[in-house]
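Provenance

Sequences were taken from public entries as deposited. Structures were produced by running a predictor on each sequence independently, with no templates supplied. The record for Light-independent protochlorophyllide reductase subunit N from Roseicitreum antarcticum is shown for reference.
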Amino acid sequence: MTDMTPIPPARGCGDAPVLKQRGQREVFCGLTGIIWLHRKMQDAFFLVVGSRTCAHLLQSAAGVMIFAEPRFGTAIMEETDLAGMADAQEEIDREVGRLLARRPDIRQLFLVGSCPSEVIKIDLSRAAERLSQIHAPHVRVLNYSGSGIETTFTEGEDACLASMVPVLAHTDARQLMLVGALPDVVEDQALSLLAAMGIENVQVLPARRRSDTLAAGPNTVFAVMQPFLGDTTAALERRGARHIAAPFPFGDEGTTAWLAAIATEFGVDAETFARVTDAPRARARKAIAAAAETLDGKSVFFFPDSQLEIPLARFLTRECGMQALEVGTPFLHRQLVGPDLALLAEGPVISEGQDVDLQLDRARAARPDISVCGLGLANPLEGEGLTTKWAIELVFTPVHFYEQAGDLAALFARPLRRRALLAKGAAA
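Predicted structure for Light-independent protochlorophyllide reductase subunit N:
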């Protein structure tokens, strides 16, 4: 097919120096990922082995109403557990037994580690292995860590999906796997575009139900839909699958390049590719242009939070006319974000990790038009007169692919428009 690779800038950030800092960080823990994962996997349950603080975090983040029955919960660690006066494995067995007796619809159970359970060294992998044998074949039990110790909140999804890869069935079939949890409507859009190109043997990890049997093998190629899935990528490669490198599907350019990389892999001709993508591309460009009127010429500063920062900076600078001052990310997976880095024009500071006080000093000195940061920093920065965008909103909101491109741009335009209206009202 015709080469649809975006034209890179004269000097990109692929080889730019990276400012690496280690210090106090401002991020949510990996337990937060349960909020979107439990909605995606419709027959799964996430049982956190943790404290009351863990339970309160999940309840607050999910906004669960008292009459709702979500597919997650917390096995509360009491003082006797923390003091080693109770057998943790027996306690877990009992709580899991009660849960499965009450919820026969559960087909997958994830035991999720937390800071407290990791500090006192509860072996959840041993528990998952034992419980899988007890409750097979109706329930498969897996485990992963959602602890906030040295992790960020999106790494909860990465750990969850990586835990699923070793139990995937084996296949020698030629197939495509899309990796990453997206809202069903967005996932359906991607599958529809691929099907229209004639690419039909497509699986999605995670599947919506355990009955949607997934498999991997040496003839599996996979495209990643989220830039924070480094461990899942490595796990799939250990199964013999091959990664298709591409910019992430944010905006018109990113979505087209992502689809083009898959189309090239499967031999889709240029005419078919254009027929499938021309109309949604035009809609995306029109929607982006409406928000770009506000964003053009404005500066943006990314604090490290979700690991979406590099692809978003590429989108905002190349498609919305913004200037990136600093692009901070918790961890820089070059295998995943390398194509986006190459398209990001030289200029911004690229930083990995965080020393929050030092980064706050840089942001105050730069005075960006908008700062993308976590909730803990947003209010203080707003109080200092800096416009902010909550990074976590970019994870919870549908922002991938063509039909969401305008919504993605609008997420950044709205705070600037609000600031302008407030300033106009104050001056009146």
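The longest strand covers residues 44-50.
The chain has a mean pLDDT of 90.
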